[in-house]
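Example record

Each entry pairs one chain with its bound ligand, zinc ion.
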Amino acid sequence: MHCPYCRHTDSRVVDSRTSEDGSSIRRRRQCPECGRRFTTVETTSLSVVKRSGVVEPFSRDKVVAGVRKACQGRPVSDDSLALLAQRVEETVRATGSAEIDAHDVGLAILGPLRELDEIAYLRFASVYQSFTTLEDFEAAISGLRADRLGESADEVAVVDPVA
Ligand SMILES: [Zn+2]
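Structure tokens for the complex follow.
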């Protein structure tokens, strides 16, 4: 591995640590030329199989690009989009497979996007799950409403014992 500081063509591993879940390994390296240290992270490469059968590397940027379209005009920051993409990657990596269907990447986006912005979620879900009728939207909106009711019910349950 080349040194990122002086481009020396060799480096020495001084420490290796496997992450808690075993999905990655971090190596601390030192350049024998300039003496500076840097860290590399090794993970299995993750591929996405598109509906067309084309296989391409998983990319957080592509997740962000796809979600950003649904977020147009919504108060969603770049930071939240980056965080969402990170959660999506963690979710698909947690499946443990090296290849994942584009469909499953979309599924992994729905949950965190719903927490981020309900309108963007509806837009994304309508394209991704191919809503064709008003009833499809109604069902999705009812789902959101039901969850909200569920949340307030939880709050009541927390308050009750005190009273
Ligand atoms: Zn160096």
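DSSP finds five helices and six strands in the chain.
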